[in-house]
Amino acid sequence: MKKLDAKIPSGPLGAKWTNHKNNIKLVNPANKRLIDVIVVGTGLAGAAAAASMAEMGYNVKSFCFQDSPRRAHSIAAQGGINAAKNYQNDGDSTYRLFYDTIKGGDYRSREANVYRLAEVSASIIDQCVAQGVPFAREYGGLLDNRSFGGVQVSRTFYAKGQTGQQLLLGAYSAMSRQVGKGKIKLYSRHEMMEVVIVDGKARGIIARNLVTGEIQRHSAHAVLLCTGGYGNVFYLSTNAMGSNVTAAWKAHRKGAAFANPCYTQIHPTCIPVSGTYQSKLTLMSESLRNDGRIWVPKNLEDAKAIREGKLKPTELKEEDRDYYLERRYPSFGNLVPRDVASRAAKERCDEGFGVNATGQAVYLDFAAAIERYGKAEANMHRMENPSKEEIIKMGTKVVEAKYGNLFQMYEKIADDNPYVTPMKIYPAVHYTMGGLWVDYNLMTSVEGLYALGEANFSDHGANRLGASALMQGLADGYFVIPYTVGDYLANDIRTGAISTDLPEFEEAEKSVKNQIDKFINNKGSKPVDYYHRKLGLIMWDKCGMARNAQGLQSAIKEIQELREEFHKNVLVPGDANDFNPELEKACRVADFLELGELMCKDALEREESAGGHFREEHQTEDGEAKRDDEKFAFVSAWEFTGVPSEANLIKEELTFENVELKTRSYK
Amino acid sequence: MNLTLKVWRQKNKSDKGKIVEYPVSDISPEMSFLEMLDVVNDQLIEKGEEPIAFDHDCREGICGACSLYINGEAHGPGRGVTTCQLHMRSFKDGDTIFIEPWRAKAFPVIKDLVVDRSAFDRIIQSGGFVSVNTSGNTLDANAIPIEKHVADMAFDAATCIGCGACVATCKNSSAMLFVGAKVSQLSLLPQGKVEATERVKNMVEQMDKEGFGSCTNTGACEVECPKGISLENIARMNRDFLTASLTSA
Predict the structure, then answer these.
(1) Which chain B residues are Cβ-neighbours of A241 within 8 angstroms?
(2) CB contact B26 to A (< 8 Å)
(3) Which of A45, A242, A398, A589 could form a disulfide with A373 if both were Cys (CB 3.0 to 4.6 A apart)?
(4) Per the confidence metrics, is the pTM higher than 0.80?
(5) What is the β-pairing status of strands A648-653 and B109-111?
(6) Which residues on A lie below 8 Å from B203 (Cβ)?
(7) What DSSP character marks residue A477?
C-alpha cells in the first residue's frame, strides 16, 4: 500500500516550525522572477497567497470564477478570527489555542499543523491592522475581543458581523496592489477545469473563460488550489451559489488524495428552511450565542400550540422553557462547539419540540441579554429605579450595536423582529473539514500541487471551532505557503518557462472540451438544479447530522443511479462559446455527484463518531459521540481508482505526543 | 402570486437588446427575488429557451454580485437591501415588474442582466490599499491606539460591497461614492494616512479614465446604497483631493 509522508519536522512541538523555516531551501530574489505560480481562488487563502508571493517576486497568475476577486465566499464569514494575543489577560496562549483546536477537532487533526496555526495567529492580526482592516475597538482605542464556542477565553477579533468581509477586502487590496504593479495577472470570470500534470508534477491548469467560453492553457512551476470547501454537495448550505468542488475533485481524479471527506460541519444557528424553492440557507453568526439563549418548550403541548400559531413564545413562562444546552452542558452552556449544539437541536426537534411549521426550528432568545445590558447601562448612567421599558430600550441599543447587521439580516429574511420575538434557527451545512490531503508544507500527494484554506483537510480534524476558518485561510496564505513553496521551487530555478504545447496540456484540454460538448449536445429533459436538489436530499438524509451503515450503503447506490440519470438526461441550454451559467453548473454538479459517493464511503468506513461525523451505532447512553481511538486515530486519505466509492484507502496514523486523548466533554 | 415580468434580454456585448415579457404564476411571497427568477429560468429551460442571465453568488447581501435594476431602482424597492435580500412579499399579486441591468458606460453589458464591473477592480489597483508587504514582524496590532469613533467611521466606509448600485443610480454614472468610501476608510486610519495624498490622486485619475461621470450632489447614490454608505465620504474625498492637488506636484 502506498504511504503518505506528512513530512512533520522533528524536534519539540514548539520548535518545529521555526526549525523547519530555518532549514528549508530558499529561492533568491533574481531567481524568483523566473518562476511562475498559479493560484486558483481568491478567498482569504488565495488572495493572501497571491499577494504574498507576488511581493516576494514570483510571477503569479490568479484565477476566480466570480466577476471580481473581492466576491470570493470568505466575504460572507461573519463572527470573527481567533488569535492567541492574550490582550484580555485571561490566560490565553499559543498552547491554549492549539489545545482548544485539537480538542475541538475531536483529536483527529495533526498536532504539528495545529500548533503552527496557533503560533502564526498573532501575526495575522498585526498584518491585517497594518493593511487598514477596521477591527472593532474599545473606547481606549485598543482592539476588542469576544468569545466563541468551545473555548473559555476571549480571543476572537471581529468587525461587527462582517469580519470575513473586512479581512478579505484587506487581502484583496494587498493583491490588487500587486496586480497594479504587474506582478499578478488576474483572470476573473475564469473557472479552472482541469489540472495538468507533467512527469508527475503539477505544471498548469486548463481554464474556461466564462464570458467567451474560450478554453485556455496556463502553465506554471507550481499550482495552488485555494478553492474552498464542498458544502454545496448538500445543495442547501450557507455556501455561495457558485461554491464548488471542481478544482479539488479534478485534482483528486488526477492523483491527489482526498482526506476525511465525511467530516462536514453543520452549523447550529441558521435560518430554517421555509420552502422547496429555497436556493440557499443563511447563517446567523455563532457570536450570537455569546448573548442568545437557545430553548424549546418543555412540554409537547406547548410546542404544538406554538407550531399551530396558537401560542407565542414570549407568552411561555420561564419554567415552561427547556434551555437544553444549559441543562445538558452546564460548564459551556450555549457556547458548546458547533457539532454538539447542532445534534442537540436535532434531538429536541426529532422528539417533537420543534417550534416552526415544519417542526425543524428552535429558539435563540435575546430577552435575557437585553435586560442584562439594559441594567448595566442604567447603572452606568446612575439611573435610580429605571422602568422595565427604559431597561429594555437601553439594552436593545447595546444588542443592536453588537449584532445590528445580523438582526437586520434575520428580519429581512424571516419578516419577524428578533428584538421582540426570539429568532428561529436550525442547523445547516456550513463548512467542510475534509479536503485535499496535504503534508506539513501544504503540498498534496501530487508534487507541485498545493491546497490551502478550506480546500485542504489539515487543521480542524473532525470539527472546526468558530472563528478558526478565517485564521487558517490567512495563516496558510500569508505565513505558511510563502515559506514552504520555496523549498519545492528551489529545484525549478533552471527549468525555464513551461511550454503549453506539451502533449499533457493538449490531452487535458481535449478532455475538458469533450465534457463540455457532451453536456451541450445531451439535449435531455431536466435542468441541472433538478439533479442537484435530489443529490442534496440524499446527502442531508443519509450523510448529514446523523449517519448509519444502512443509510450510507443505500445512499451510495442512490447517488450512483442519480449520476447515471444525470449524464443521460440533463438538459443544458445555450452554447459552449458563450456566457452560459447552466453549463458552469452542469460541470460542477457532475463533480458533486462523484464526491457525494466518496463522502458516504468515508462515513461508512469510519466506524466511530468523531466531531461532525456522528454514527448512530456509536454513541454513549446519553447520546454523546463515542470515538474509537484504538482503531480510528488516523486520517483517511482516499486515492481515486475510477469509481468514487471504490477508492483506495491510505491511512495516515495520527500520533499525539503533547496532548492526552480524552473524551471530549463540555459538561 | 401571478406577475408579469418585463426583462432586458441582450445576447452579448454587441447585441442591441430588448425588453421581453414573461408571465409568471404561482410565486410564493416567501421567495426571494432571485429565487423567483430561478423558477422562471427552470421553466424557460424546460421549454427549450435560454434562461435569463444574472449575476449572483452569496445570496445574503454581502458579496455584491447581484445587480438588478428593478422598476427603475437599483436593487428594487426597499432600502438597505441588495437584490438577493429582496423578497416577493414586497410586491403585490398582478404586479408588472421591469428588470434591467445596471446602466453605465463604464459597466458594459455582458449578457442580459450581467454587466462588467472590472472598472472597480482597476480603481482599487490604482491605489486602494496600504503599501505594506506581508511580514511576520510588523507592529503589534495594539501599538497604535485608534479612537473608537474614528475606527467606527473607517469601518462604516469599509462596508461597501462594490456592487455598483451607486453608479447605476446616478444620472451621471458617477463612481464617487465607491471611490470616496475606500479613500475615506484608508485616510481615516493612521496606517493609511501615510500615503493618503498619492492614493486619492491615483484613484480619482483611474476613476476618470474608466469613463465614470462627475458628481453633482444629488445624493441618489446614498439613498440606493444597500450598505448605507454616507455622502460624507464623497466630501472627505473631495477635501483630500483638493489638498493633494494644492500641496503636491
Answers:
(1) 56-59
(2) no
(3) A398
(4) yes
(5) unpaired
(6) none
(7) I
